[in-house]
Design brief:
- The structure is a single chain.
- The chain is of the alpha+beta class.
- The chain has 15 helices and 42 strands.
- The longest helix is centred in the first third of the chain and has 17 residues, at 145-161.
Length: 937
Amino acid sequence: MFLSSLFFIFIFFIGSSQTQNINVNLKNEFSESIFNDIQFPLYLNDIKIFSDVIFDDFEQCKLIDLKPGLANEADLKNLLQNLKKKNKFESCTLSLKKLTGNKFNLLLKLHSYRTFENVRIKGRLRNKEKYLRNYHFEVGEFFDENKHKHFISKIIKDLHADGFLSANVTDKIDYNPKTKSVIVKLHLENLDRYVIEDIDLQFKSKKINNDHLKLKQKIQVNFLNSLKKNIYSKNLINEHIENLKKYLAKKGYLFSKIKFNKNFSSKKNKIILNFEIDLQNKRKFIFFGNHFFTTNQLLSRMLYFGDSLLLISPSLLAQEIADIYHNFGFWDIVVNVKEEDGKIYFLINEGQRAEIKKISIQGNKQFQNNFFDSVLENKFYDKDTLKQALDEMTLFYLQQGFWDFEIINQNLKQLGLNQEYELEISIHEGERKFLKKIEVENFPNPFILSGGPVPFNVDFLKEQKESLINHFRSCGYLYVEIDYKINEEPDGCILVWQIKGDINQVTFGKTIICGSSSLPSDIILRELTFKKDEIFDRKRIDESLKKLRNLNIFDQINLTVLNNKNKKNEKDLLLKYNLDDPFEIRTRVGFQSVSRNLSFNGGLTYLIGASFIWKNPFNYADIIKIILEANRYKSDICFSYEVPWFFQVPIRTAFKVYSIRYEQPIVIGSRKNLYKAFQDGCLVNCTKKLERYDFSMNLGFEAMKIDSLQPHLAALIDFQARLLGKYVPYFFIEPSIFLDFIDDKLNPKKGSLTLFSAKGMFPINLPQGYFIKFLFEQSFFFPIVDPIICALRFRFGHIFNSDFKNIMPIERFYLGGSFSIRSYEPDHVPPVNFLPKDDTNSCCLVPTGGKSMVNINSEFRFPLYQKISGVIFNDMGVLVGQKFSDILGNNWVGGTGFGLRYATPVGPIRFDIGWKWKKRFPQDKSYSWTLTLGQAF
């Protein structure tokens, strides 16, 4: 036994002597001589990594560029640099165990520190996010308890400043041992705002006289009493103090100091404010004879001198006033000054103001005098107006290629005895330069100059330099320096751009995920639109961020470009993110106007709804949604499971199960229903979104039923009576393509939108009931004359089916309403039938829908005032029941009208009213109006 123990001790010491451990602090810069005791190159036989937090194999492979084989010192240093950039590991231990010769096994032991992951704030306060801005931890940052407490104190301070004087913040720190990260939960308590009950005012002065008492009374009445019964806030108090200081300055107390403190009242949530005013020395300025400038304007000019105003002699202040008048043409101004009993009197004789009657320019050979219209329109001399006109003339000449242009002299010549003057300006135009060619040395030229030599505008240099910089950066040349030279020739100049500096293309390096998370790294990294060693382009970073945000599982996410010390032409990126709350419940209550084209009529109805969202339930960036929604006419229940990729294909996929019930009223707003519709089904939706293109495919089963419809009413809407009350199961497939080339989604000014969709419905037990529904929509937006925008839309739809009666009413085409033909009520464009009312001899119109549809809309959109704009529109279209050939007949309808738009962050509030071209039935109204949200198209 004793010999056996000695043997194991001997083996242990032998093994230990063959292993070399290197400890590295990753929070600081490590020494360059860290591997001096190791002989390179060495052969790594095996590499193993142990981490005390989640660090999955995929991320290890991407981050640590070290594989079994030969390794040198730079390889190990690069490994440590990558681990340092991850900003999660505090230290690293490299254990090199020697095998035979120069072969080693490498063991990496990574030790992490606590990092900040997310902060959440709760409390019965609407604008909680405002206070959360004081919490400045970044995702992945080392969690410092002292900083945490400091941030909380800043939140409390801001709450107190806003009137929540008893507010407090309690904190709870949730620690995740798997990731060594913390989630901070803050709870706002005692959120009662305090009201100002009373105000006390005191003067800080050695002697209080009657003037002080009168001033105190005026301050109390004009400034402080208005604060009573207001909710306390520091901004409100500061605003009143600033106004009070201006008032005191007018009274001669130029630099008074005002302090205040607050005392809690015996009444609940009430405070008393105590103001103390130090009046300082009184020095009052009194102006006589000023007409052009008001007393307040002259006094404000005096206050520009600040605290030194009390030290400036009155004669210098009089000269300052005279200078102000001189700038506006009062050259005979006389300012006398008198000081008496702490008051300074300025006696001003303004005199007559100089008037510019004529302007003559000497030396202008190329262009006529049209730069000084504003000076002549102003009539009187104004230094600033004249300077602006001279600057505009100088800029114009430079833009026209006169690089040597200069204003030699400007002189005012008096005309007669009155203050009337002629402005004489002498200029030197110099030689005009023309640009005939642009070249870029050693690179393809992105500039094309056509049409022969053009005036060499000085601004060309700045504009083209910026354009070149953007061009080269988009091509990966981040470190180029751009200079130019100009070769002058008899028939024009040649601008030669010289590309200097580092002309090597910069590529993407590694994408390093900051911190540690249970979300697999491959789920995140696969969304990136760039790969290592590809040409660096910031647009691709923006595209990647957009794709990551569209996963809808992150609270925050950003990509930061890092600089590589060893590889200047390679840019690593640091990806920081924190996951959103996994569970979210949304509720909504309100009113809505029920009108869905292609579906059913409606009116104003209540709306209640709720959504339950579970984010990332299976750690696959997936989302589970349960949506419940109901109004007077419709109830909808939908369960969906969404994944961002379909297996290994980047196609967003949703699996849905739904059940929809809605009632079709006979007329809008009626409580009597024409029929009830039932839709129950399941589908798979696949969507691929690109920058300008959206591709979508729905595939599934659906059972539809039309119920509570009397047979004679079924004939009224041309529907097969034998299908009433029966579920018809369908297999359906619905591809669609959407092309978006507009400049602004809320208020487009130019571009186009294209939509193509087709829906095939194939019943299982109704051979003649199949149909294929086709829809094409094209919109154009373009400016006619700024700022008038012309908007055009064309829609065409057709249902391929031999028997119209077998098509479910909810799948037919309808026209009319705020999004198609606005002079008609929703869905009431013919063909329609007449349904007699029970209690009168009158009839109501019942739409039957159609198999074919054409709709053309045109609008002229123009601004009116600030956020309000106007529209003149013209809508026309035709709806055909059975025969496609009827589309060329006399069934076209239309309407003309106008509308108003009020811009909001979520889209314009829209009012439209349109008049029919022709009333086809006595029951028709001649017009229709609508109030809704969003553009018509």
